[in-house]
Fold each of these.
Amino acid sequence: MYERNELECLFADKHHIDVKDDWLLRVQSSPFFKAKEKYGFDISSSVCISKRQIKTIQEKADSGLTMIHFWLNWGDQMRFDTLALETNSVYSVQSRLLSSCMECGKSFVKSLKDGDYLPYDDAEDDDVWIIDADKLFNNLKVEV
């Protein structure tokens, strides 16, 4: 079991998640402003994650059934002539499915470097993907 920090406790309270359950939290507090322009993804559901971060999450997970919650949480922001509206969304996936998401969700997962498809096994630790979390994670079947 994990010792929860203050942010995790706040998240659990706000989203009615039991702090004793098997889950990990990844917070993204800044929007990816170029998501729509460069990749065709909605700013409010775009998650950026590197292979190194995925490996770290999988190492921390107690099991393949550990839920990973991606909390996208920011206020209205404007950059690059793009307005990102306030977002407070949660997208969840089991840790065992995280790396396979990079394989099965080709149209919802793109390499940050060039916008092309990048298989998980071909990626270096510093390679980063942009994920349309709303389309990818909400279409996955979660088994318990």
Note: Helices lie at 6-14, 35-39, 51-60, 95-104, 133-137.
Amino acid sequence: MNTEKYTQQVNVIKERFDNDLQELGLRIRNEVVAPACKNHRLKFFSGNGTFFFARGEETYSEVRDLERASKTLRETLEPIINLLNTEIVHNDYLGFYVGQVR
């Protein structure tokens, strides 16, 4: 039984999947995250299995973190944080694919 062709198919699928997620992450960074950062004087950090918005010492990575934020900031960040917390596969979230904004 030749299994090599299946291994090759899986590798092609994984590469396409990763490329699609990287492309989507870049679009989300440029079209959603960067404008929110600019409008609210925020930075966005991602890497090492985490992602979050920051302004000074305040950080926002979960919707519950927004309780201490202004109404305007909550209304802006809540849908973005929900989007970034979309699970792609087990413990792999969309926010991991969105580049930093400083």
Note: The chain has a mean pLDDT of 95.
Amino acid sequence: MDSTWEVACAERLDALGIRWQRDPSIKLQYRCKKLRLRNYIPDFYLPDYDIYLEVKGYWTEPAKWKMRDIMVRYPGKIRLLESLEDISKLSKPVEPTPIDWKTTKIGERR
């Protein structure tokens, strides 16, 4: 794991009985700000729900760009967890929730 928040997320998923994978061979393509094609390795993949989780505490401008592009390319597939509170509120997904791109901003607290 790359951070204590990712450890907390794994523990929360385990407590909920949600099967997860952390696999560097899972790669999602995106374009960086210079429009070069790159690969993003998600923090967690939930195979039973076909959802990816990204645990993000600090937002750099390149990270914001990357996540915007990924979320456009894979609509409804990425869930951002931006705090320990977000992690503690994790529950079993019922249905994928579409993101309202007109009101949701990357790095914005909800």
Note: The mean pLDDT is 84.
Amino acid sequence: MQGMNIDVFLSIAIPLSLYFLITLAGSFVKDMYNSIRGTDTSFRLYRILIGSLFSAFVMVGLENWLLKHIGLKEIVVLAFFVGLLSFELFERLSNIDGLFKFYQTYQQIKRGEKVDLHDKPTLSDCTENKDKPPPKEDEEKKK
């Protein structure tokens, strides 16, 4: 068994650092785009850093497969887009309802069902008593 020497360390650390910088640029561009568009007025560095670090690890894991199937320039572009997507993915999965929606969508895709990405049930929808009739509107609200 080979121990951790400097060559092994550098063969992991250098690509990880480069992927981190590229995905950081993608996440930063997405946050700036959201700020300019007005959908998100605050700059959250932790969201950018966590998304970029996660994306960098994903890219290092896929690196050998990607090098066999696509070129180096395409990998750089893909890393940038993964940075953009990781920002969105972290935004959606940052709460329990987002995780639940992601899991429900995954299960539907796995079963081969048609997926409607616009209207997904929340955790509270699935835990409520289904036998209970829907709430009636107050008579005052109707008038």
Note: The chain has a mean pLDDT of 77.
